[in-house]
Each structure stands twice: as C-alpha cells, then as structure tokens.
C-alpha cells in the first residue's frame, strides 16, 4: 500500500513539473553595446533611438554619447542627449526621458537586449544609475517599491533613479522583446541583488 502511494505521488509530481517549468522560464538579458564616458552634458538628458540604412551611416551620425548596434536585421543608433535632437539620415523610433540624474566620476552607457516568454521575470535587483525601456514586442511590467508600470510594443518607460529595487517581467500573452538603456556609475557593480518590500 505504501509503495502504491509513493508511486502515485511521484506520477502526480511528474504531471505538475511541465507546468512549473513553464511558469519558471528565464528572462533573457544580453548586452548589445556599451561605452564608458567621463562626462555627461548638463541639464535634462533623453535617450533617442533611431534606425539607419547602414552601420556606416549610423556611425557617422553618432556623437560622443552615441552607441551603434545591429539587431534583428536593423541598424540602431542609441544617442544620449537633449530632447528634440535628431541625427542626419536617421529614422526616429523613440525618445525616452528626462532621465533621473546620475553623478559619478565615470559613466557606463549600455544597451541590453532583453525579454522572454510570458511569465518570465528577472530577479529583484538594483542598478547604480538610471534604466529606461523601449518595448519592441509583447508587454513589459516593472515592479518597484513605488508601484507597478506596464508598457507594450512601441511604448517607452523611464525607470527610477539609481539603487531602487526592481523586477521586470514579461506580462503579455506573447514573447517580450525590449531594449533596456542604462546610464550608470561605472565605478560600481552594474547590478546588485535586492528585495522588494
């Protein structure tokens, strides 16, 4: 009798495992492009996202705070600057800001490609600076102690100032694809574990 109960428990456990595996799918985060700089312009800063016909055109248009990357068959320029600026030859995709201020002796500008299937979520973490988002597909939700923000394809989100605990999840019914745009203190760890209260 005990053997039958054990076998029944194991079989029912195996039937539950696939649904648990689906619920625990990984949120993928990969650096796309980055650079370190020692100065940022004064005043309010915005991320400008543009696409170009060629990598050479994008690199020619990029200023000292511009990052060029190829992603999913397109050439992208991510430029940190003032609101309303535009690059010659670029097609405007989005402008995100104003960004929370970051004070440091050296800055890391980084663009990550990130996302995952519905239900995937990052660990709770902090960054030593600002993070902004542009959603390419799906829906993104960000949870912080200040509340919950949700954005979908074609929309942007300005994150919080540095060291605010957060988690990001794929909250839609289809796979999330997004760019995460960072201006952080390059002298500190890029990401640190945290807790949401």
UniProtKB/TrEMBL annotation:
<dbReference type="InterPro" id="IPR014710">
    <property type="entry name" value="RmlC-like_jellyroll"/>
</dbReference>
<feature type="domain" description="Cupin type-2">
    <location>
        <begin position="117"/>
        <end position="162"/>
    </location>
</feature>
<feature type="signal peptide">
    <location>
        <begin position="1"/>
        <end position="23"/>
    </location>
</feature>
<dbReference type="InterPro" id="IPR013096">
    <property type="entry name" value="Cupin_2"/>
</dbReference>
<keyword id="KW-0732">Signal</keyword>
<protein>
    <submittedName>
        <fullName>Cupin domain-containing protein</fullName>
    </submittedName>
</protein>
<dbReference type="Pfam" id="PF07883">
    <property type="entry name" value="Cupin_2"/>
</dbReference>
<dbReference type="InterPro" id="IPR011051">
    <property type="entry name" value="RmlC_Cupin_sf"/>
</dbReference>
């Amino acid at each position: 009798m005990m053997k039958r109960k054990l076998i029944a428990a194991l079989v029912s456990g195996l039937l539950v495992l696939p649904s648990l595996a689906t619920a625990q799918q990984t949120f993928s985060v990969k650096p796309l492009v980055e650079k370190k700089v020692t100065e940022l312009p004064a005043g309010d800063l915005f991320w400008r996202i543009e696409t170009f016909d060629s990598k050479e055109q994008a690199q020619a248009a990029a200023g000292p705070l511009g990052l060029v990357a190829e992603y999913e068959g397109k050439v992208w320029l991510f430029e940190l600057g003032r609101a309303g600026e535009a690059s010659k030859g670029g097609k405007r995709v989005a402008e995100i800001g104003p960004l929370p201020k970051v004070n440091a002796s050296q800055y890391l500008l980084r663009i990550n490609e990130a996302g995952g299937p519905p239900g995937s979520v990052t660990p709770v973490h902090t960054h030593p600076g600002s993070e902004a988002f542009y959603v390419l597909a799906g829906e993104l939700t960000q949870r912080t102690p200040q509340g919950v923000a949700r954005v979908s394809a074609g929309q942007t989100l300005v994150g919080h100032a540095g060291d605010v605990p957060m988690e990001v999840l794929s909250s839609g019914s289809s796979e999330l694809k997004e760019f995460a745009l960072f201006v952080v203190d390059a002298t500190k760890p890029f990401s640190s574990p945290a807790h949401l209260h």
